[in-house]
Prior knowledge:
Layout: H1 7-31, H2 39-52, H3 79-86, H4 99-104, H5 113-140, H6 147-157, H7 159-167, H8 171-187, H9 190-203, H10 211-216, H11 220-241, H12 243-257, H13 269-280, H14 294-318, H15 324-340, H16 354-367, H17 371-383, H18 387-395, H19 398-402, H20 407-427, H21 433-439, H22 441-446
Helix pairs in contact: 1-17, 2-3, 5-6, 5-8, 8-9, 8-15, 9-11, 11-12, 13-14, 14-20, 15-16, 15-20, 17-20
Amino acid sequence: MQRVASKSLVRIAASLTLLILLLLAGSELIKGLGPPDQVDFRVYLTAAELVREHKGVQIYSDADTGQNPQMRFATPGSTFQQTAASIGIPQVRLYVYPPTLADLLVPFTFLSLQQASDAWLAFNILAILGAAMLLTWMLYDSVFHVACIGFFIGILCFRANGWAFGQGQISSVLLLLWTAGITCYVKGFKRTSAAAFALATAIKLTPLLVLLPFLVWRESRWVRWFALSLAVICVILCLVNGPQSLLDYTLHVMPPMSAGFISASNVSLPSGLQQLYLGLTGKDFTAENAFIPHAVIFGSKLIAGVIMLLTLIGIYRLGPLRSIMDRAKILALIALLSLYCSPVAWRSAYGIVFLAAFFLWKEAFDRGISTLELLLLVLCTLEFSFFFDTLFLRFTHGVLLSATALLAPASGCLLIFYTLRKMRLSEHPPHSIPIVHSLHPQLHESA
């Protein structure tokens, strides 16, 4: 039997982990002093400007050529590049998200480029504050609690959120929507929960994985509301941009993107496996978008698919969970799964892992945890802020260095499967009484 860690040991481990995360986040803040370039927001703003000019059908005009549009710059003279130049952006990458994000950001196009960038940064900070307030409401039935400050600081401690601020990424908004979906489900507002997850899916398709646990739990009403919300969003997108925009994205943008993108900043499971392949074969794994054989791409996708299937089986074997907080914890693990099993997961997108860390650390304080589990939780939490990646990048080379991108997804896999196994054992504990009786048959006879 594993030794249970004392409450004081859990507090010490949590304090040391938080201190390391603060130091990592602080070092990034010092290195990034100065105005953020927000390169990703400039892409979103250009697409939003096209929508405002009633040219929503052209937001993929340079990204639907059949080549992987990830990290590619718009061709000089193209509609996308000309639109970017008209609002003061000399060079811009291609837009690779569903049309939803471009439509939602149209209000920002009424501001100057600098004003829009400042407003977007403020909006992302407010999104993180909103996520902290929702978690506080979930636990304390009020947003006015001192814990809200702790949750806000805890989210900011993950380096991914600082990178997202600097790049103008959408990650903070997705964290808010995931938190809203989980919190509203816990509080019994299932329609609002379904709508929040539908909007997250319409912005970035990976939250669609949230359907898996709800199908297993036979939450048919929630599933219907999710499908209805997603259908309404699609109808609105067609009315605003025309159906051709959705078809263009589905048929010409998504397929080439599914191959992934080789980059040190892409820490998804498929990309990590592909970078490891390059390292094992002696090829340059540091070159962006290096050539990968189709068999390797297929194999990496297959492994990610198997991981998702095993997770679904693990959730199914748990049976109907009676505790609503256990269900919330499963949803947080699905958020983690949706991140590292996608073809592309930039380091700046890993702020969403805070949800999994939040529920697992909460359980460690509330129910207790073994020393081994505590060590695992500390190591995974540190890696979700890329602590060990930093060490690998500085002190390793060759094949070990090529495995750096696998550290975060491997940590996620380990944490998910270990948590599901622990939950299954707690829901279905082994029966010990019959074994004791078999060792003492004379007790039965005397009775």
